[in-house]
Amino acid sequence: MTSTFTLHSRSDRARATAAAGLRRRVRAATAATAALLLAGAAQAATFSARINPGDHGEQSRHASYMAINAALAEALREAKAGEASSAMSTDAAVDLSNTRAQLDDIYIAPAHVVGSALRNGYVPLAGNPRGVRAVLVGMQGNPAADLAGAAGQRLGLPLQDSVVTYLVRGELNAANTSLKSHFRSVKNLRYQDALLVCLHIRECDVVAVESAVFERWKAAGEPVKVLLESRPVPGISVAVRQSLAGTPAVRALQPALLRTLGAPALARNGISKPVAIDKRDFDYVSTLGYFTPRLLPGATVVDAAAVARLMAEGAIYFDTRTETEFKAAHVPGARFLPYGEKSAKDTDYNAKADSFDTTKLPADKGAAVLFACNGAECWKSYKASHAALKAGHTKVYWFRGGLPEWRTADRPVASAGP
């Protein structure tokens, strides 16, 4: 009996040892498989990319987007960085707002959009530092020879958030004047090419476009001349979220992008001779944004620390941005109350063009109310504060720095539906 028990014990120990070895091998295989899956997932990372190819014309915009998107996809494959979920933008105003809300991983866009991204948590990857100039253009028969001579004439511009409009306004500021005071009227059109029609039908006396558009018109035999040329700013450039910039995938992406964006087809579509561009190249265009006033009569302008204190005391924080922006990130405890903005980004804006439901504000007009959006370049909270004052509210606080300032102050951020 003793020997049988010993044999059984030895046999049991052997089976236990074998089973333990098998379990170790299974765990090792499982770990290896998981590592491979994680590596595969890292290689298959998907970056959200927003591509704004500019506003030369409707057909050229689509062709440019396709060429830029193809170059981005090729660079991602070459760098083994993953793939991009790309969206074409046709609205620089939305792009500017999205950069401040940090909604996308990659922006490929005109200089003022990328400049906004660089101020809000992104770093530059590629672009041409002197790629774009705006020019003020008239027909050969226009007696004006320069900006001063065009005073009192009718001006045609792209939309107010076009890089051309930014640059023209900068030149007028440098001349100690403004669009409204210098020109008899200002007409905004969606595409730069449409401004040539405005000249031909004599609804515009002068128009502003990119120098490349002017050169194309001139090469086609149009009798046009330049009255003013702006300072140069970067052309369409690439910026990536700063938290991704140090990853091996993005480090490998930059040289790949410089190669794919340097293709001749891209030179015809808004990107010429890209280099590893520097943040300082965007300093000038970054000063040209539609910054809100620093004061709002009747309201109290507050910083992040004051906002936290006021909310702790019972003030209601109203976030006036879009629902998408609110869901992505907002100040904890904020209420979603969007301001539908169609009016100009100016102190004499037409409030009738906008929509804002003041009935959703507290019935008690003496209750403390806070309004904020996406920083000093976002006019929605300024206009919402003004609407609240007009509706009779007496304790109106305007958080001019908005969510970007809240983040900079290392305050907590929430993300959820309204």
In short:
The protein is of the alpha/beta class. The protein is 41% helix and 16% strand. The chain has 16 helices and 15 strands.
Topology:
Layout: H1 2-43, E1 46-51, H2 58-79, E2 83-88, H3 92-101, E3 106-109, H4 111-118, E4 122-126, E5 134-139, E6 154-157, H5 163-174, H6 179-182, E7 185-188, H7 194-200, E8 206-210, H8 211-219, E9 224-229, E10 237-241, H9 242-245, H10 248-260, H11 264-267, H12 283-286, E11 300-301, H13 304-312, E12 316-319, H14 323-328, E13 335-336, E14 369-372, H15 380-390, E15 396-399, H16 402-408
Parallel strand pairs: 1-2, 1-3, 6-7, 6-8, 11-15, 12-13, 12-14, 14-15
Antiparallel strand pairs: 3-10, 4-10, 5-8, 5-9
Task: Characterize the structure shown.
This protein has 418 residues and is α/β, with parallel strands linked by helices. It folds into three domains: 46-129 and 234-286, Periplasmic binding protein-like II (D-Maltodextrin-Binding Protein, domain 2, 3-Layer(aba) Sandwich); 134-229, Periplasmic binding protein-like II (D-Maltodextrin-Binding Protein, domain 2), CATH 3.40.190.10; 300-408, 3-Layer(aba) Sandwich (Oxidized Rhodanese, domain 1), CATH 3.40.250.10. Helix content is 41%, strand content 16%. It has 16 helices and 15 strands. It has helices spanning 2-43, 58-79, 92-101, 111-118, 163-174, 179-182, 194-200, 211-219, 242-245, 248-260, 264-267, 283-286, 304-312, 323-328, 380-390, 402-408, and strands spanning 46-51, 83-88, 106-109, 122-126, 134-139, 154-157, 185-188, 206-210, 224-229, 237-241, 300-301, 316-319, 335-336, 369-372, 396-399. Mean pLDDT is 88; it is low at 1-20 and 28-43.
